[in-house]
Structures are given as C-alpha cells and as structure tokens.
Amino acid sequence: MDADYLRFLPEPSRPGFVPPPGAVDAHCHVFGPAERFPFAPGRRYTPCDAARDELFALRDFLGLSRNVIVQATCHGTDNRALVDALVAAGDRARGVAVVDPDIGDAELDGLHAAGVRGVRFNFVRRLCGAVPSDALLGIAGRIERLGWHVEVYFEAADLIDLIPFLMRIPTPVVVDHMGRPDVAKGIDHPDFRRFLTLMAETDRTWVKISGSERLSAEGPPAYADAVPFARRLVERFPDRVLWGTDWPHPNMISHMPDDGHLLDLIPRVATDRDGRAALLIDNPMRLYWS
Ligand code: 0GY
Q: Strands 116-122, 66-70: parallel, antiparallel or unpaired by DSSP?
C-alpha cells in the first residue's frame, strides 16, 4: 500500500536545545504497521507505517522522556495500534482516543487502564466526515467520570461557529496545533484574536504548541512566521500550553520536517527556563499523568 505523502526522516538532526529531564512530547501518532493494525477503510489519506518502536527511538534520541499519542483519522475509531503502543510504553505514554458515540463504559474503562486520558473530536473537513454535535456531547458527558478531557482539531476560520459547541463540553478542552491560525494573516487577525479570547475567558481550555511546520509558509528550519503565534500563546497562558512534535507528520507534502529543528523552536517560543519547564513537564504531567 503506497502512502500519500512523504515518509518521516529516519535520522533527524541532533537538536542544539537539550530538553530538561522529564520533558513530554504531547502530540505524536503511531501508524500501523498496516499489516498488524490496518488503516480505516474510509480514511482520507494513507500514511507511511510509523510504528511505536520508531516513536520510542525518536523520544530517546531527542532527549524526551514521555509521549502523548493521539489517535489520527487514518485509524478511524480502531484504537488498537494506540493501545498497543501505550501498553508497550508503560508509564512513559498516555493516549487520546477516537471513539464511536455508542461505545460502552466497559470499553472506556479498558482504554483508561491502557493509559487513554482523552477523546479527540476532529472538525477539519478534509480529514473526516462530521459527527452530529449531540453525539459528541454524549461522548463528552460519558468520559467525565474518568477525569478525561476532549481534544479538538479545527481550522481557525471555523472557530466562530464552534464556540457554542465548545462551551457545552463539560471537561477540559485541548486545542490542536495552536488553533491552526493562517499565519499569513498575521498575529492580529480576528481569527487568532478570537482564539486568544477563548483561552482567556475559559480557563479549562488548553492549547498544543505544535504544527509550526504545517502553518509556516516560510518553511524550515526556522519556521519564522509561525513562531510569534506560539510565543504569544506561551507568554499569555503559561500554565495551559503543551508542546508536541506531531511525528510522523501526516499529510506533510511541502517538505518533511526534521524533528531536531522542531525541538530547536522551543527556546524561541518559551524564552525562559520556568516557561520551558511548564510547557514541557509541569503542564503535561498535570493534564495526562495526575
Ligand atoms: C493534518 C494533520 C494531522 C492529521 C491528523 O487525525 C489526523 O489525521 O491529526 C495531524 O496530525 O496534525 O492536518 O493533516
């Protein structure tokens, strides 16, 4: 089966930035291997195999300690590859699953035992079909007892329509990839300001400082046009930001990012030691491990 886009770099460069001990990559995926964990029949893209042991090798190479593995659309609601990775990682990984609205409590309990701590709702139209909001709210209500959160992925221009829905979610909400701003529009564009307002007004909203490589038009290695967005979020909401590589970078067509370069963005977006400790350790440990 051929993948639709580039394979991840097997040998990223060694970053100049040395993460503090205990640092968490809070957004990454495992894909397949397809022979063992087939991709979803209705998927919108076919990824390259990116197995758990390759993820763990990257974690160790970059000097990171833990992973948060997020279910991606290409595996649909079949969380077996995710669970396999979580079990293999032991306490060094947590997961975010995608589940069907009619999932039973026993299955949710099983996911919890494996290390799942959240469910993901995806509103990016090119990636998956829409699920009715009542069904999603039903899931959100059912996971509350487990102390889980909801992770949401959307494009910045769609936030305005999603806000009433987000307000009805009873759990913490984690927003992927900085709310996917259009960086060409600049940091003062109303779409990004709307997201900052949401963050300011709802202290249960968290954000992933990830995806600079997909948002940037200027490209590698500096991704200079995406950095101000990340820095603004880190400066304004130091205790609700999480950082992740997004390895193995699904759907990256322009180029395949070097994870060493992505690590070197960290001191540019979190410019002091306390901010980096919050971003890389304290915040993810509080959300996923407590
Ligand atoms: C994208 C990127 C991603 C895809 C997914 O669930 C997914 O398929 O998350 C990503 O990992 O950031 O926008 O195509």
A: unpaired
**Backbone CA torsion sign across 276, 153, 288, 59:** negative
> CA-CA-CA-CA torsion for 22, 272, 205, 280, nearest 10 degrees?
-10
Indicate the pTM of the whole model. Answer: 0.97
Predicted pLDDT of residue 3: 82
d(CA 4, CA 44): 10
Domains of the chain, start order:
24-289 (3.20.20.140)
pLDDT at 1 over 70: no
Residues 35-75: tens digit of each pLDDT: 999 999 999 999 999 999 999 999 999 999 999 999 999 99
- Which residues sit with their C-beta closer than 6 Å to ligand 1? 29, 72-74, 122, 124, 127, 153, 177, 246, 250-251
Nearest residue by C-alpha to atom 14 in ligand 1: 251
